[in-house]
Structures are given as C-alpha cells and as structure tokens.
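Notebook entry, structure prediction.
Reason for the run: the old model in the group folder had no record of what sequence produced it. Starting over properly, with the input documented here first.
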Amino acid sequence: MVHLRGKQTDVLIIEVYMPASDYSDNDVEDVYEKIEDILNAATKSKDYSLIMGDWNAVVGESKEERYVGHYGSGIRNAHGEKLVEFCQRWNLYIASTWFCQDKHRRYTWTSPAENGRYQTDYVVAKWRFWNGISNAKTYPGADINSDHNPVVTTLRIELKKVLKVQRKKVWNIDKLTDDITATEYQGEVNIALDGSWETGDWNDRWERFKDSVTHAANKA
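New structure, fully documented this time:
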C-alpha cells in the first residue's frame, strides 16, 4: 500500500494479489475484507483511491451500469461477479474496461495449460474522480519476468499544493546584555510606538505594541 498525502487530497494506492481459483471462496473473501478495512481506516470521501493488481477475476465485455465498461475481455466468471459487487458497494469503477483498445491491449494473462488469454488484472478507482484516469491498456510482450502483461494507466491528478511552513524567527536576547545594544533596542521601540499604543481599545493597543516590539527586535 502506498499513501501519497497532499494538503487537501490524499492518494491511496493498494496493490492486490487475489488468490487463484484453486483457493477457497473464504480465502478470496478474506482479501476483500482486508481491502475494505484499509479503505475504511485510511480514506475519506475526498481522497483519491486506486486499487490495482491481479484480481484473478474476469468481468467480461458486458457493461454494468457505471462500474464496468464495454471494453473488457471474455465472459464474466464468479470471481468477476464478486469484483463487480465490490465496486457497487464502494462506488468504484473498473477503469481498465472503459477505454477502447484492440483485443491484444486488453488481456493480461495467458494460461500456459490451454493457451487461453484472459483479462484478470485491473485498475479500480473511485467513481467520484471519473476524469482522473485518461487511458488504460496492457503491454503484451513486455520484458518484466512475469506471465502477466503490465497494465499502464495514465492519471491526471493534481494534488493540492502544500504550503511551506514559515519557521518562527528566534531572536538572540543575549545581545540585550550589552548596554549599547539594549539602549538602541529601547530607542527603536520608542520610535515605533510613538505614543500610538496609548489610544484605542485594548486589542488595538496590544497589536500596535506587539508590532512595535517585533519591528524593533528585527532591526536590533
């Protein structure tokens, strides 16, 4: 899991490795529960969440409202149904299925036993940030030492600018032990005040007094 923080918006990236078909349904449910625990604990409504990896699910080419697009691959299986239900619960969409790509740009895994090609790796994101992903496609034949094809997604997310915290200035009060410096400081305070702190309400008088003392300390 990667958590990128901005001032107003966080980006949460969760990498998924869903159990293969030879595992039990309980094992699959355990992974979904862990993902939901992370989403519950680490995200707010304004946060941008990406969940990506091998879901070991085929959602197919059938569009499912706003959760699954037309450009999946294959026929939806039981694990695919579970993924769609997960997206419905969390208002997510499977970005990999919403961009028109050639068939060879959709499949992510080739079965060594039957030489079949399947789309099992997806990038899933919050529906609220629908326009945050502008493209998603696979790169078959990439030299990545894996039997899966990488899914490359183009994001256009602009994090809020984090303002730099201004360091509080520390004055060297030891200089006031010098009589000349102390006299000069007192003179600067008197000039800055110029009697103006004696008029107005207490809040105004305090602000003028504080500004005068600060101004004199900066010059000393």
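Summary: The first helix runs from residue 25 to 42.
The old model has been moved to the deprecated folder.
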